[in-house]
Amino acid sequence: VIAAILAGVAWGTLNPALQAMAMQTTVPAKRGVASNTGYLGMDMGFFLGPTLAGLVAAHTGEQGALFLSGMVPVIVGFVIFVLTWRRFQARVKWLERLEQSSRRK
């Protein structure tokens, strides 16, 4: 039950937050592409996640390994997020300056 609650909260908060971050780091003309890329990534995750989990379960024969292997993409994603956070912030600031300079013209 706790896992279901955490999954619901994560899905309800992280999905819109990641979409907003994609929109913040893209020029207005390319926001549709950024949005669709985000959805493509989610669809690939929905396809690859269960497929790879089934392979792990079939080869190891135990559910413990299945759940432990599920931590790998979460940890990798978190590390990538932390490593690219400054680049994200710099990109947002650059786009804000670009938008302000285009308003002045």
Whole-number average pLDDT? 88
Low-confidence stretches: none
Total E-strand runs: 0
Biggest sheet layout: none
Helix-and-strand structural type: mainly alpha
Proportion of β residues?
A: under 5%
- The Rg value, from CA coordinates, equals 18 Å
Order of helices and strands: HHHH
Q: What is the overall silhouette?
A: elongated
* Helix fraction by DSSP (H/I, runs of at least 4): over 70%
The N- to C-terminal Cα distance equals 56 Å
**Tally of individual helices:** 4
SSE blueprint:
Layout: H1 2-24, H2 31-60, H3 63-69, H4 71-104
Overview of the molecule:
The protein has 105 residues and is an all-alpha fold. It is built from four helices and no strands. It has helices at 2-24, 31-60, 63-69, 71-104. It is elongated. The chain starts with a helix and ends with a helix. The model has no long low-confidence stretch (mean pLDDT 88).
